[in-house]
Design a protein that fits this description.
By secondary structure, this protein is an all-alpha fold. It has 20 helices and 2 strands. Strands 1-2 form a two-stranded antiparallel sheet. Helix 1 packs antiparallel against helix 2, helix 2 packs parallel to helix 4 and helix 13 runs parallel beside helix 17. The longest helix is centred in the middle third of the chain and has 20 residues.
Amino acid sequence: GKGREGRDGGVSEGGSCICSRLVCEVLLSHLNLGNEMTWREFVHLIRKLIGGVDYKGCRELLKALLTKFDHLPPSVPRHQMLALQQGKELLEYILDRNAALLPAYFALDELQRHYPDKSHSPHWMLEGVVEKLRSEMRITADVVSGIVQPYLLPVIGVSNLTMSNWILDPQRHCCTLKGLLPYREIFLKPQEDLLFYLISQPNSKDVIASILNLKREQIQPNSLVEDALVRLVVVAMELAERYPEAEEKHSSAWMLLANCYFVYAYLQLVGVASVLEKLRVKLVQREVTHGRSYLMWSLLYFFTNNYHAKSMSPTAWVQEEFVPIMNLYNLLYQDKEPLPVPNTSSSSCVYDCSMACLWLYYKKKAENENLTLPQLTPHIISKQIEWIEQKLEEVTSSSPSSISTANDYTILLLLNAYIANEKLYNILLDSTLPPLPPSP
Protein backbone atom coordinates (compact mmCIF):
# COMPACT_ATOMS: atom_id res chain seq x y z
CA GLY A 1 0.00 0.00 0.00
CA LYS A 2 0.94 3.65 -0.23
CA GLY A 3 0.83 4.21 3.50
CA ARG A 4 -0.07 7.70 4.71
CA GLU A 5 0.67 9.53 1.44
CA GLY A 6 -2.83 9.01 0.06
CA ARG A 7 -6.14 7.47 0.96
CA ASP A 8 -6.59 5.94 -2.48
CA GLY A 9 -3.69 3.55 -2.05
CA GLY A 10 -4.00 -0.03 -3.17
CA VAL A 11 -2.21 -3.17 -4.09
CA SER A 12 -0.65 -3.24 -7.56
CA GLU A 13 -0.73 -6.43 -9.60
CA GLY A 14 0.32 -6.52 -13.27
CA GLY A 15 -0.29 -2.82 -13.91
CA SER A 16 -3.75 -2.79 -12.26
CA CYS A 17 -4.62 -1.46 -8.82
CA ILE A 18 -6.90 -3.11 -6.26
CA CYS A 19 -8.51 -0.84 -3.65
CA SER A 20 -6.97 -1.29 -0.19
CA ARG A 21 -10.39 -1.18 1.47
CA LEU A 22 -11.67 -4.00 -0.71
CA VAL A 23 -8.63 -6.15 0.08
CA CYS A 24 -9.01 -5.51 3.83
CA GLU A 25 -12.73 -6.34 3.76
CA VAL A 26 -12.08 -9.63 1.97
CA LEU A 27 -9.30 -10.54 4.39
CA LEU A 28 -11.48 -9.73 7.40
CA SER A 29 -14.37 -11.78 6.07
CA HIS A 30 -12.08 -14.82 5.79
CA LEU A 31 -10.53 -14.51 9.25
CA ASN A 32 -10.87 -17.83 11.06
CA LEU A 33 -9.23 -18.42 14.43
CA GLY A 34 -9.33 -22.14 13.71
CA ASN A 35 -6.61 -21.56 11.11
CA GLU A 36 -4.09 -19.73 13.27
CA MET A 37 -1.47 -19.26 10.56
CA THR A 38 -3.94 -17.71 8.09
CA TRP A 39 -5.38 -15.47 10.83
CA ARG A 40 -1.96 -14.06 11.70
CA GLU A 41 -0.96 -13.49 8.07
CA PHE A 42 -4.28 -11.82 7.19
CA VAL A 43 -4.19 -9.53 10.25
CA HIS A 44 -0.57 -8.59 9.45
CA LEU A 45 -1.51 -7.72 5.87
CA ILE A 46 -4.55 -5.67 6.98
CA ARG A 47 -2.28 -3.72 9.32
CA LYS A 48 -0.02 -2.83 6.38
CA LEU A 49 -2.85 -1.90 3.97
CA ILE A 50 -5.29 -0.05 6.26
CA GLY A 51 -3.25 3.15 6.01
CA GLY A 52 -4.50 3.48 2.43
CA VAL A 53 -8.19 3.32 3.45
CA ASP A 54 -10.23 6.51 3.98
CA TYR A 55 -11.96 7.14 7.33
CA LYS A 56 -15.34 5.86 6.13
CA GLY A 57 -13.75 2.60 5.08
CA CYS A 58 -11.86 2.37 8.38
CA ARG A 59 -15.17 2.72 10.20
CA GLU A 60 -16.62 -0.22 8.26
CA LEU A 61 -13.49 -2.26 8.95
CA LEU A 62 -13.77 -1.43 12.65
CA LYS A 63 -17.37 -2.65 12.63
CA ALA A 64 -16.38 -5.88 10.86
CA LEU A 65 -13.51 -6.51 13.30
CA LEU A 66 -15.77 -6.03 16.34
CA THR A 67 -18.34 -8.39 14.83
CA LYS A 68 -15.61 -10.97 14.21
CA PHE A 69 -14.58 -10.84 17.88
CA ASP A 70 -18.22 -11.03 19.01
CA HIS A 71 -18.48 -14.46 17.40
CA LEU A 72 -15.40 -15.80 19.15
CA PRO A 73 -15.93 -18.10 22.15
CA PRO A 74 -15.05 -16.68 25.58
CA SER A 75 -12.66 -19.55 26.22
CA VAL A 76 -9.72 -19.70 23.79
CA PRO A 77 -6.98 -22.39 23.76
CA ARG A 78 -3.54 -21.24 24.87
CA HIS A 79 -1.97 -21.81 21.44
CA GLN A 80 -4.44 -19.33 19.86
CA MET A 81 -3.75 -16.51 22.31
CA LEU A 82 -0.96 -15.04 20.14
CA ALA A 83 -3.34 -14.74 17.16
CA LEU A 84 -5.99 -13.19 19.39
CA GLN A 85 -3.45 -10.71 20.75
CA GLN A 86 -2.58 -9.74 17.17
CA GLY A 87 -6.27 -8.96 16.49
CA LYS A 88 -6.38 -6.83 19.60
CA GLU A 89 -3.33 -4.88 18.42
CA LEU A 90 -5.06 -4.23 15.09
CA LEU A 91 -8.02 -2.73 16.95
CA GLU A 92 -5.65 -0.59 19.03
CA TYR A 93 -4.04 0.65 15.83
CA ILE A 94 -7.41 1.61 14.31
CA LEU A 95 -8.38 3.51 17.47
CA ASP A 96 -4.95 5.11 17.94
CA ARG A 97 -5.30 8.88 17.53
CA ASN A 98 -1.70 9.22 16.45
CA ALA A 99 -2.35 6.85 13.54
CA ALA A 100 -5.14 9.20 12.40
CA LEU A 101 -7.08 6.45 10.64
CA LEU A 102 -10.45 7.34 12.11
CA PRO A 103 -11.71 10.39 14.05
CA ALA A 104 -12.11 9.41 17.72
CA TYR A 105 -15.73 10.60 17.82
CA PHE A 106 -16.68 8.29 14.93
CA ALA A 107 -14.81 5.41 16.57
CA LEU A 108 -16.64 6.02 19.85
CA ASP A 109 -19.96 6.30 18.04
CA GLU A 110 -19.39 2.89 16.47
CA LEU A 111 -18.46 1.39 19.84
CA GLN A 112 -21.58 2.89 21.45
CA ARG A 113 -23.77 1.44 18.74
CA HIS A 114 -22.10 -1.95 19.02
CA TYR A 115 -22.16 -2.05 22.82
CA PRO A 116 -25.09 0.21 23.87
CA ASP A 117 -25.42 -1.09 27.45
CA LYS A 118 -23.97 -3.50 29.98
CA SER A 119 -25.86 -6.43 28.48
CA HIS A 120 -23.81 -5.98 25.28
CA SER A 121 -20.18 -6.10 26.34
CA PRO A 122 -17.12 -6.63 24.10
CA HIS A 123 -15.06 -9.81 24.03
CA TRP A 124 -12.89 -9.94 27.16
CA MET A 125 -9.75 -9.49 25.03
CA LEU A 126 -11.06 -6.11 23.80
CA GLU A 127 -12.52 -4.74 27.04
CA GLY A 128 -9.40 -2.77 27.97
CA VAL A 129 -9.09 -1.21 24.50
CA VAL A 130 -12.74 -0.15 24.40
CA GLU A 131 -12.68 1.24 27.94
CA LYS A 132 -9.51 3.22 27.23
CA LEU A 133 -11.18 5.14 24.41
CA ARG A 134 -14.30 5.73 26.50
CA SER A 135 -12.20 7.06 29.38
CA GLU A 136 -10.38 9.48 27.09
CA MET A 137 -13.67 10.73 25.63
CA ARG A 138 -15.24 11.26 29.06
CA ILE A 139 -12.99 14.30 29.45
CA THR A 140 -14.51 15.71 26.26
CA ALA A 141 -18.00 14.87 27.54
CA ASP A 142 -17.33 16.77 30.79
CA VAL A 143 -16.14 19.82 28.87
CA VAL A 144 -19.20 19.79 26.59
CA SER A 145 -21.79 19.15 29.30
CA GLY A 146 -20.50 21.09 32.30
CA ILE A 147 -19.72 18.67 35.09
CA VAL A 148 -21.86 20.40 37.76
CA GLN A 149 -24.94 21.07 35.63
CA PRO A 150 -27.20 18.41 37.24
CA TYR A 151 -26.50 19.92 40.67
CA LEU A 152 -27.48 23.48 39.74
CA LEU A 153 -30.99 24.68 40.57
CA PRO A 154 -32.72 27.77 39.15
CA VAL A 155 -33.82 30.57 41.46
CA ILE A 156 -37.56 31.10 41.01
CA GLY A 157 -38.67 34.69 40.53
CA VAL A 158 -35.50 36.09 38.98
CA SER A 159 -36.67 37.91 35.86
CA ASN A 160 -33.43 37.78 33.86
CA LEU A 161 -32.75 34.08 34.52
CA THR A 162 -32.37 32.03 31.35
CA MET A 163 -33.86 28.53 31.44
CA SER A 164 -31.80 27.16 28.54
CA ASN A 165 -29.35 25.51 30.96
CA TRP A 166 -32.14 23.38 32.44
CA ILE A 167 -34.14 22.38 29.36
CA LEU A 168 -34.66 18.61 29.45
CA ASP A 169 -34.79 16.01 26.72
CA PRO A 170 -38.51 15.69 25.82
CA GLN A 171 -38.41 11.89 25.63
CA ARG A 172 -36.08 10.80 28.44
CA HIS A 173 -36.42 13.87 30.71
CA CYS A 174 -32.66 13.90 31.23
CA CYS A 175 -30.24 16.75 30.56
CA THR A 176 -30.13 17.87 26.95
CA LEU A 177 -26.98 16.29 25.52
CA LYS A 178 -25.23 16.54 22.19
CA GLY A 179 -23.89 13.46 20.47
CA LEU A 180 -23.19 9.98 21.82
CA LEU A 181 -20.34 10.87 24.14
CA PRO A 182 -19.81 8.78 27.30
CA TYR A 183 -21.54 11.23 29.63
CA ARG A 184 -21.64 10.62 33.36
CA GLU A 185 -24.57 8.52 34.49
CA ILE A 186 -26.25 11.41 36.30
CA PHE A 187 -26.68 13.23 32.97
CA LEU A 188 -28.53 10.27 31.48
CA LYS A 189 -31.07 9.85 34.29
CA PRO A 190 -34.45 11.63 34.44
CA GLN A 191 -33.95 14.82 36.44
CA GLU A 192 -36.38 13.89 39.21
CA ASP A 193 -34.67 16.03 41.87
CA LEU A 194 -34.90 19.11 39.65
CA LEU A 195 -38.64 18.62 39.08
CA PHE A 196 -39.19 17.90 42.77
CA TYR A 197 -37.39 21.12 43.72
CA LEU A 198 -39.36 23.18 41.20
CA ILE A 199 -42.77 21.76 42.07
CA SER A 200 -42.15 22.51 45.75
CA GLN A 201 -41.58 26.20 44.96
CA PRO A 202 -44.49 28.68 44.65
CA ASN A 203 -45.03 30.25 41.21
CA SER A 204 -42.88 27.71 39.38
CA LYS A 205 -45.37 26.48 36.78
CA ASP A 206 -43.92 28.67 34.01
CA VAL A 207 -40.41 27.44 34.76
CA ILE A 208 -41.57 23.82 34.61
CA ALA A 209 -43.32 24.41 31.29
CA SER A 210 -40.13 26.05 30.00
CA ILE A 211 -37.66 23.31 30.97
CA LEU A 212 -40.00 20.61 29.65
CA ASN A 213 -40.31 22.65 26.44
CA LEU A 214 -44.10 22.39 26.52
CA LYS A 215 -46.35 24.07 24.02
CA ARG A 216 -49.89 24.84 25.08
CA GLU A 217 -51.52 22.81 22.32
CA GLN A 218 -49.28 19.79 22.99
CA ILE A 219 -49.57 19.57 26.78
CA GLN A 220 -50.55 16.18 28.18
CA PRO A 221 -50.04 14.38 31.52
CA ASN A 222 -46.35 14.09 32.26
CA SER A 223 -45.15 11.13 34.36
CA LEU A 224 -42.15 13.04 35.72
CA VAL A 225 -44.35 15.87 37.03
CA GLU A 226 -46.78 13.32 38.49
CA ASP A 227 -43.94 11.52 40.28
CA ALA A 228 -42.58 14.79 41.65
CA LEU A 229 -46.03 15.79 42.96
CA VAL A 230 -46.51 12.37 44.59
CA ARG A 231 -43.06 12.59 46.16
CA LEU A 232 -43.90 16.04 47.55
CA VAL A 233 -47.13 14.71 49.11
CA VAL A 234 -45.31 11.75 50.69
CA VAL A 235 -42.66 14.07 52.18
CA ALA A 236 -45.39 16.33 53.60
CA MET A 237 -47.14 13.33 55.17
CA GLU A 238 -43.90 12.08 56.73
CA LEU A 239 -43.25 15.54 58.21
CA ALA A 240 -46.76 15.57 59.66
CA GLU A 241 -45.98 12.26 61.36
CA ARG A 242 -42.62 13.44 62.65
CA TYR A 243 -43.79 16.83 63.94
CA PRO A 244 -47.51 16.48 64.76
CA GLU A 245 -47.46 19.56 67.01
CA ALA A 246 -46.47 21.96 64.18
CA GLU A 247 -50.05 22.34 63.00
CA GLU A 248 -49.73 25.89 61.66
CA LYS A 249 -46.76 25.01 59.46
CA HIS A 250 -48.46 21.89 58.19
CA SER A 251 -51.59 23.89 57.30
CA SER A 252 -49.56 26.29 55.15
CA ALA A 253 -47.71 23.45 53.44
CA TRP A 254 -50.89 21.53 52.62
CA MET A 255 -52.57 24.66 51.30
CA LEU A 256 -49.62 25.00 48.91
CA LEU A 257 -50.03 21.34 47.92
CA ALA A 258 -53.74 21.78 47.27
CA ASN A 259 -52.93 24.75 45.03
CA CYS A 260 -50.38 22.56 43.22
CA TYR A 261 -53.18 20.12 42.44
CA PHE A 262 -55.17 22.98 40.90
CA VAL A 263 -52.32 24.36 38.83
CA TYR A 264 -51.00 21.15 37.34
CA ALA A 265 -54.43 19.58 36.83
CA TYR A 266 -55.58 22.77 35.07
CA LEU A 267 -52.47 22.75 32.88
CA GLN A 268 -53.17 19.04 32.19
CA LEU A 269 -49.64 18.16 33.28
CA VAL A 270 -50.98 15.51 35.67
CA GLY A 271 -53.81 13.02 35.57
CA VAL A 272 -55.64 13.10 38.91
CA ALA A 273 -56.53 9.40 38.94
CA SER A 274 -52.95 8.52 38.00
CA VAL A 275 -51.52 10.67 40.80
CA LEU A 276 -53.86 9.11 43.39
CA GLU A 277 -52.94 5.57 42.31
CA LYS A 278 -49.20 6.34 42.37
CA LEU A 279 -49.67 7.87 45.81
CA ARG A 280 -51.47 4.76 47.05
CA VAL A 281 -48.59 2.58 45.86
CA LYS A 282 -46.03 4.83 47.59
CA LEU A 283 -47.94 4.77 50.89
CA VAL A 284 -48.18 0.99 51.18
CA GLN A 285 -46.73 -0.16 54.51
CA ARG A 286 -46.31 3.40 55.82
CA GLU A 287 -47.73 4.64 59.11
CA VAL A 288 -49.38 8.00 58.41
CA THR A 289 -51.94 8.53 61.16
CA HIS A 290 -51.54 12.33 61.22
CA GLY A 291 -50.62 12.85 57.59
CA ARG A 292 -53.73 11.08 56.28
CA SER A 293 -56.02 13.79 57.67
CA TYR A 294 -54.08 16.55 55.88
CA LEU A 295 -54.08 14.52 52.68
CA MET A 296 -57.85 14.03 52.72
CA TRP A 297 -58.39 17.71 53.51
CA SER A 298 -56.25 18.73 50.52
CA LEU A 299 -58.24 16.38 48.27
CA LEU A 300 -61.50 17.76 49.66
CA TYR A 301 -60.28 21.30 48.97
CA PHE A 302 -59.26 20.34 45.45
CA PHE A 303 -62.30 18.36 44.34
CA THR A 304 -64.91 20.69 45.84
CA ASN A 305 -63.35 23.68 44.07
CA ASN A 306 -62.28 22.07 40.81
CA TYR A 307 -64.73 23.42 38.25
CA HIS A 308 -63.34 21.14 35.57
CA ALA A 309 -64.17 18.12 37.75
CA LYS A 310 -67.69 19.46 38.37
CA SER A 311 -68.39 19.31 34.63
CA MET A 312 -67.42 15.64 34.37
CA SER A 313 -70.04 13.00 33.61
CA PRO A 314 -71.28 10.90 36.56
CA THR A 315 -69.48 7.77 35.35
CA ALA A 316 -66.24 9.72 34.90
CA TRP A 317 -66.07 11.29 38.36
CA VAL A 318 -66.97 8.01 40.05
CA GLN A 319 -64.07 6.23 38.32
CA GLU A 320 -61.52 9.08 38.33
CA GLU A 321 -62.27 10.63 41.73
CA PHE A 322 -64.37 8.54 44.08
CA VAL A 323 -62.85 5.10 43.43
CA PRO A 324 -59.19 6.27 43.74
CA ILE A 325 -60.05 8.19 46.93
CA MET A 326 -61.72 5.14 48.46
CA ASN A 327 -58.69 3.04 47.51
CA LEU A 328 -56.57 5.49 49.50
CA TYR A 329 -59.09 5.36 52.35
CA ASN A 330 -58.99 1.55 52.50
CA LEU A 331 -55.19 1.72 52.73
CA LEU A 332 -54.84 4.56 55.26
CA TYR A 333 -57.86 4.04 57.52
CA GLN A 334 -57.52 0.57 58.97
CA ASP A 335 -58.52 1.49 62.52
CA LYS A 336 -60.56 -1.07 64.43
CA GLU A 337 -62.71 1.54 66.21
CA PRO A 338 -64.60 4.49 64.66
CA LEU A 339 -62.75 7.79 64.64
CA PRO A 340 -63.59 10.04 67.62
CA VAL A 341 -65.74 13.15 67.48
CA PRO A 342 -63.49 16.20 66.88
CA ASN A 343 -62.85 19.09 69.22
CA THR A 344 -64.47 22.05 67.45
CA SER A 345 -62.60 24.58 69.57
CA SER A 346 -59.42 23.64 67.64
CA SER A 347 -58.84 24.35 63.96
CA SER A 348 -57.51 20.80 63.61
CA CYS A 349 -61.11 19.54 63.57
CA VAL A 350 -61.41 20.47 59.88
CA TYR A 351 -58.55 18.06 59.15
CA ASP A 352 -59.71 15.35 61.56
CA CYS A 353 -63.12 15.19 59.86
CA SER A 354 -61.89 15.62 56.28
CA MET A 355 -62.61 12.03 55.26
CA ALA A 356 -66.13 12.21 56.67
CA CYS A 357 -66.67 15.50 54.81
CA LEU A 358 -65.41 13.93 51.59
CA TRP A 359 -67.86 11.07 52.00
CA LEU A 360 -70.81 13.42 52.59
CA TYR A 361 -69.75 15.52 49.60
CA TYR A 362 -69.76 12.54 47.23
CA LYS A 363 -72.91 11.11 48.78
CA LYS A 364 -74.84 14.32 48.06
CA LYS A 365 -73.23 14.64 44.63
CA ALA A 366 -74.43 11.12 43.79
CA GLU A 367 -77.95 11.94 45.03
CA ASN A 368 -78.04 15.06 42.84
CA GLU A 369 -77.21 12.90 39.79
CA ASN A 370 -79.42 9.91 40.76
CA LEU A 371 -76.44 7.64 41.34
CA THR A 372 -75.69 5.01 43.95
CA LEU A 373 -72.15 5.06 45.32
CA PRO A 374 -70.34 1.74 44.81
CA GLN A 375 -69.59 1.49 48.56
CA LEU A 376 -71.60 1.74 51.80
CA THR A 377 -70.78 4.28 54.48
CA PRO A 378 -67.45 3.17 56.00
CA HIS A 379 -67.70 2.05 59.62
CA ILE A 380 -64.59 4.00 60.67
CA ILE A 381 -66.12 7.41 59.87
CA SER A 382 -69.71 6.52 60.82
CA LYS A 383 -69.46 8.15 64.27
CA GLN A 384 -68.15 11.40 62.81
CA ILE A 385 -70.88 11.43 60.15
CA GLU A 386 -73.59 10.98 62.81
CA TRP A 387 -72.06 13.82 64.82
CA ILE A 388 -71.92 16.12 61.74
CA GLU A 389 -75.58 15.43 60.94
CA GLN A 390 -76.52 16.12 64.56
CA LYS A 391 -74.60 19.41 64.52
CA LEU A 392 -76.30 20.37 61.27
CA GLU A 393 -79.69 19.84 62.84
CA GLU A 394 -78.71 21.96 65.84
CA VAL A 395 -77.41 24.80 63.69
CA THR A 396 -80.32 24.88 61.25
CA SER A 397 -82.89 24.81 64.06
CA SER A 398 -81.24 27.73 65.88
CA SER A 399 -81.67 31.38 65.12
CA PRO A 400 -78.69 32.98 63.36
CA SER A 401 -78.15 35.37 66.26
CA SER A 402 -77.63 32.48 68.69
CA ILE A 403 -74.83 30.93 66.64
CA SER A 404 -71.36 31.86 67.77
CA THR A 405 -68.33 31.36 65.52
CA ALA A 406 -65.80 32.71 68.01
CA ASN A 407 -63.31 29.97 68.88
CA ASP A 408 -65.67 27.43 67.36
CA TYR A 409 -65.05 25.77 63.99
CA THR A 410 -68.35 23.88 63.76
CA ILE A 411 -69.72 26.07 60.96
CA LEU A 412 -66.53 25.78 58.92
CA LEU A 413 -66.63 22.02 59.30
CA LEU A 414 -70.27 21.90 58.21
CA LEU A 415 -69.48 24.09 55.20
CA ASN A 416 -66.89 21.52 54.14
CA ALA A 417 -69.34 18.66 54.57
CA TYR A 418 -72.33 20.19 52.75
CA ILE A 419 -70.73 22.13 49.93
CA ALA A 420 -72.60 19.94 47.42
CA ASN A 421 -75.95 20.85 49.02
CA GLU A 422 -76.55 24.35 47.71
CA LYS A 423 -79.55 25.12 49.95
CA LEU A 424 -77.88 24.01 53.19
CA TYR A 425 -74.59 25.59 52.17
CA ASN A 426 -76.21 29.00 51.72
CA ILE A 427 -77.99 28.70 55.09
CA LEU A 428 -74.73 27.84 56.81
CA LEU A 429 -72.90 30.62 55.00
CA ASP A 430 -75.53 33.18 56.03
CA SER A 431 -75.14 32.13 59.65
CA THR A 432 -71.51 33.27 59.58
CA LEU A 433 -72.40 36.81 58.50
CA PRO A 434 -73.00 39.50 61.13
CA PRO A 435 -76.64 40.66 61.46
CA LEU A 436 -77.60 43.78 59.57
CA PRO A 437 -78.12 46.92 61.67
CA PRO A 438 -81.76 48.01 62.13
CA SER A 439 -83.05 50.46 59.58
CA PRO A 440 -83.32 54.02 60.81
